[in-house]
Predict the 3D structure of the following.
Amino acid sequence: MPAKLLRAAAVDGGVLTMVLGNGLGAIAAGRVALAACCDAWGLSPAVVNRIEVIFEEVVANIVRHGFAPGYAQEIHVAAQLADGFAVLRFEDDGVAFDPLAVAPPAPFTSLAEAAVGGLGIPMVRRLASDVVYAAGGCFDGGFRPVNRLTVRVATGAISPAPPS
Amino acid sequence: MQVTTIEGITRVVLDGRLDTDGVNAIELSFTATIVPAGRPAIVDLGAVTFLASLGVRMFISTARAAAGRGNTLVLFKATPPVAEIIDTMGLGEIIAIAGTEDEAIALAKA
């Protein structure tokens, strides 16, 4: 149930923070809070769409590939506006993984050879202004090193994302 | 998901969000509607409000399976948020994209 997967959400000083549980239902649960925050920030529909796609892809990637089914692992999300960008920070205590170290799939040139997996992170990188990965530290009371992915999305006039 | 036949072409109308939940809900029936029919298909995206990578994967997989039977899949009338993802991912390089239904039918018959 999505409600159980949104363990905490708060807005303080213009910063949205959420704690999401280990399950794909966390995407729908967190998206509602994120969309409400984007509305309050007065972002354009095009920018909000980019933010929602990035949120979906990053959380799905963590749950599918970083977490073990049934374990009480968490994703801590923070979102705020800063210097013309929406800044999304994702921290998780799953398997250490730098998504930026993975070579992106080849651009689509033929239907027969097109990759159907591994499209999410390349999509994030194309929609974002920049993406930074770091690792280190632990959640309070935790013992696993934390993956930290910071994604910035320009909030001004949208220009087309670079083609694949 | 609504399915009709028009001029010997399968016409599918999708709506809502093609996110993780949305794709999981329709992927099997979407593929089963288009591929075994053995004829071209056009997919109306005019009421789709969100497209994530799982939706892109669904379109590629279905178009590939249809192509294996000699049939074309055409996507048309994408909304702005969906069109941005299609463009960003370069989906138009491998799947026919049309603006209107008439254009989609013409591409499906080509």
In short: Chain B touches chain A at residues 19-21, 50-54, 56-57, 60-61, 63-64, 67, 80-81, 84-85, 87-91, 93-95 (CB under 8 Å).
